Amino acid sequence: MRKLRRFLAMLVAAVLLAAALGTLVPRPLWPAAMAEGEGTRHILVLKNQIHTDIAVPFDDGVRRRFAFLADAGLPIEAPEARYIVFGWGGRAFYLETPTWSQLKAAPVLKALTLDASVMHVDVAGAIKEELPDVIGFYVDDEHFSALLDYIAASFQQGPNGPVVIENAGYSTYDRFYEANGHFNALVGCNTWTAAALRTAGLRTGWWNPLPVSLWWSMRLYN
User: What is the dihedral of CA 18, 94, 170, 66, to 10 degrees?
Assistant: First the structure.
């Protein structure tokens, strides 16, 4: 029993050390070079206690790039639509836990081990950037295009394009799609967000499994 306690204590200490180093060590180590037109594209990162999303402002190019969302009934052409919000995550937890009161053991177990992944897409109106769970960044056109490429590549492709999951969504303004990759506790929704932001030319921590560590590293290095 003493050996087990010692092992668990060492394991917890190792995880905490990895999380601290993952926040404090930047990735990439050196800032990326910015292209012409620096700072012309504004994106937002949104967080809650366990999850982060990326909000991309609508324009004609973004609407054309993600036109398939209209086929699933998302109001991407609505005048009040300002942002399209993307998140990647575990299938069981995402689909079966719309609110904390509906938390169940099976989705949590899958999230901690291995699960299929899904893309969650939400159409949003105006988002107040001064809120504590919202942070904005400006990127250049080249990196903005690379970010859209990264997001588009996360959707699993079927014979007719991205595969929408029928009867899955929290409201009339969001949809779930099959995604590429597998979800686990080490490679989860926040590491996907971090990788997307690095594609956009921003710096994150080396490993950011939690929203708070990603938040700290984003503020520290950008």
Answer: 80
